[in-house]
TrEMBL record:
Subunit structure, as described in the record: Homopentamer.
Residue intervals of the Flagellar hook-associated protein 2 C-terminal domain: 329-591
Organism of derivation: Maccoyibacter intestinihominis
Record bears the keyword Coiled coil: yes
Family per similarity comment: Belongs to the FliD family.
Localization, UniProt: Secreted; Bacterial flagellum
Keyword vocabulary terms for this entry: Bacterial flagellum, Cell projection, Cilium, Coiled coil, Flagellum, Secreted
Protein name per Swiss-Prot or TrEMBL: Flagellar hook-associated protein 2
Keyword Transmembrane helix found: no
Coiled-coil annotated spans: 547-574
Underlying gene: fliD
Length: 602
């Protein structure tokens, strides 16, 4: 736009005069801008309302129109909740079951003994400081065996990493000077151990503090069992039985070599062991394979007894202080209705039940599954509450006070008012934008009709009122809440809490009928809204109002405003040119007068 310098000669306020001359054009442009502003607010009002309607449509209605809405609402009660926790899935049948916790799953832990060293060890310390030379440790996790090569140049950190690489968690506590190893999960399949293959491995593990007290107990017990077996070989009664099994005289037996004598003596030991266990006939004690197998059984039995006798003694406690302590991993075991289930975790999923064992139970527990009445009730209360919120918002918008005489303000009008006055003025208009809107009324009416319908279930007609859910009535309800529903007996609803709670009673006595009714009700309301949320030439998908049409109107206003701005600018240029011509003429006239005055000598 060119620079306009006007009124210098004439002394006229050219700008004001031009603005007055083009005021009719300005007014037309402002009127269109006000219409566009009001339309923009209408778009915002519809977007907000559509969000509420769509939220109800996509969440509560969508969920309730499927029968599965209530199916998963089960409540399971255990006679002793300190022993286990139980949750019921949708497939669990109501009824009573028995449960017993026999064992808990445990992870394997090894707490190393305090390492004996002249200097305090760190993670960076080398194993040579413990006097460890080259050796190999066989480490087993579950059924998987691996070999860890150990040498003097390896650091403690290197060793913990090598162990951790096998599927356990290994660490070294510099403060306690101990190694700690634990399985990463509970259950026997994740148990671990060192398989001691020889003296070198035993020495290395002892120096590392990883040789367990249980290993030493077992080693001591095995030695004692072997000593007992050797003592029996020297027992006169066993010898007499061995001579009988051999079928020779005692002198002939004495003439046998040591190996042959040992075979017959071991057979006599097995015969005595069988007799003690009730096996008295049908065994051939000259069968070497049978004798060897049964002798091993005997050795294991004696070893186990020695281990049992050692545990709890001062000697055992002393070994625990001197050697590493190992907690073996174990599986959990439960009994459900008499059937035994075992697993590496304390949590079992069985036929829809999720059972988490917490403590071993000495007796059988009672497990009762039933419909969770409170959960179903709360779900229906929430559904009704969300419907009320939407329908009240729609009624409030439709019945809003008129804003006749109020129009969006121009910038000049805003400058003459305070911020609070402007806000109050504009809010008056915004609150009335959907007043008596035919689209809004149509949607609200269809929802109200669908909610008031009756549905036949097993030959009997049901409506919301059948379950104590009603509106309060035209003359009792608050403004714009005349179509809201209230649930009799709802403690949070002042207007209905004193009435008999029929809904909760119906859920407790016949949950299937309640679920079926609300399923049908939700389908009906959903269908009404769904038909209005389809794409048309005037509206987009999931929009209950004509958003495309409103946008088109908004764009049309933008074009009109642009056209009027062009007309206004053209008219301003026209009038400024006229005044410019006048100023030029006046300037020439003044110049001529000056020259004439000079000639006349005035």
């Amino acid at each position: 736009m060119a620079i306009r310098i006007s009124g210098l000669i004439s002394g006229l306020d050219t700008d004001s005069i031009v603005q007055e001359l083009v005021s009719a054009y300005s007014t037309k442009k402002e009127n269109i801008e006000k219409k566009q502003t009001k339309l923009s607010w209408t778009q915002d009002a519809w977007k907000e309302m559509n969000t509420k309607i769509y939220g109800f449509y996509s969440k509560s209605l969508t969920e309730f129109k499927f029968m599965t809405s209530f199916n998963g609402m089960k409540k399971t009660t255990l006679s002793d909740s300190s022993k286990a926790t139980v949750t019921a899935g949708a497939s669990v049948v109501n009824g009573t079951q028995s449960l017993k916790i026999n064992k808990l799953a445990k992870a394997a832990y090894l707490t190393g003994s305090k390492i004996k060293s002249n200097d305090k060890l760190k993670s960076s310390s080398k194993l040579s400081e413990l006097g460890i030379a080259d050796t190999e440790l066989e480490f087993q996790v579950g059924d998987k065996k691996s070999t860890i090569s150990v040498n003097g140049d390896m650091t403690i950190k290197d060793l913990t990493k090598a162990l951790s690489d096998q599927g356990v968690t290994a660490s070294f506590d510099e403060t306690q000077q101990r190694f700690f190893i634990n399985s990463q999960e509970s259950g026997e399949e994740f148990d671990f151990k060192f398989n001691v293959k020889g003296e070198d491995q035993e020495v290395a593990l002892r120096k590392l503090g990883m040789l367990s007290a249980d290993y030493m107990v077992e080693k001591t017990a095995k030695k004692a069992a072997d000593d007992d077996i050797q003592a029996l070989r020297e027992n006169a009664t066993i010898k007499a039985s061995a001579v009988q099994i051999a079928g020779i005289t005692e002198d002939e037996f004495d003439a046998l070599d040591e190996t042959a004598q040992k075979e017959y003596l071991d057979a006599a030991i097995v015969k005595a062991y069988d007799t003690d266990n009730g096996i008295t006939t049908g065994r051939d004690y000259t069968n070497k394979a049978y004798v060897e197998a049964r002798l091993n059984n005997f050795r294991e039995a004696v070893t186990d007894q020695y281990i049992e006798d050692l545990k709890g003694t001062d000697k055992y406690e002393s070994l625990k202080k001197e050697y590493a302590v190992k907690q073996d991993a174990s599986n959990a075991e439960i009994e459900l209705n008499g059937a035994i289930f075992e697993g590496s975790s304390n949590t079992f999923t069985i036929n829809g039940l999720t059972i988490t064992a917490k403590e071993v139970s000495d007796s059988t527990l009672s497990l009762v599954t039933e419909t969770d009445v409170d959960a179903v009730y709360d779900k229906i209360v929430d559904f009704i509450s969300q419907y009320n919120e939407v329908i009240n918002a729609m009624d409030s918008a439709y019945n809003a006070d008129s804003s006749k005489g109020y129009e969006p303000l121009t910038d000049d009008e805003k400058e003459a008012m305070s911020d609070k006055e402007v806000e109050k003025w504009e809010q008056k208009i915004k609150d009335s934008l959907l007043r008596r809107d035919s689209t809004l009324n149509s949607i609200a009416s269809s929802m109200k009709v669908a909610m008031a319908k009756s549905y036949t279930i097993n030959g009997k007609s049901y409506s919301l009122s059948s379950f104590g859910i009603n509106t309060l009535g035209y003359f009792v309800s608050a403004d714009n809440e005349k179509n809201a529903y209230h649930i009799d007996g709802n403690s949070k609803d002042e207007s209905a809490k004193s009435n008999t709670d029929r809904l909760k009673a119906a859920i407790a006595s016949d949950p299937d009928t309640v679920a079926t009714f609300f399923n049908e009700l939700a389908k009906g309301v959903y269908s009404e809204l769904d038909s209005r949320m389809k794409t048309t030439t005037l509206s987009s998908a999931y929009k209950v109002y004509n958003d495309k049409q409103l946008k088109s109107e908004y764009d049309d206003y933008t074009e009109q405003i642009k056209n009027w701005e062009t007309k206004l600018s053209d008219m301003e240029d026209y009038y400024y040119k006229k005044f410019s011509s006048m100023e030029t003429a006046l300037s020439k006239l003044n110049s001529q007068q000056t020259q004439l005055s000079g000639l006349l000598g005035s």
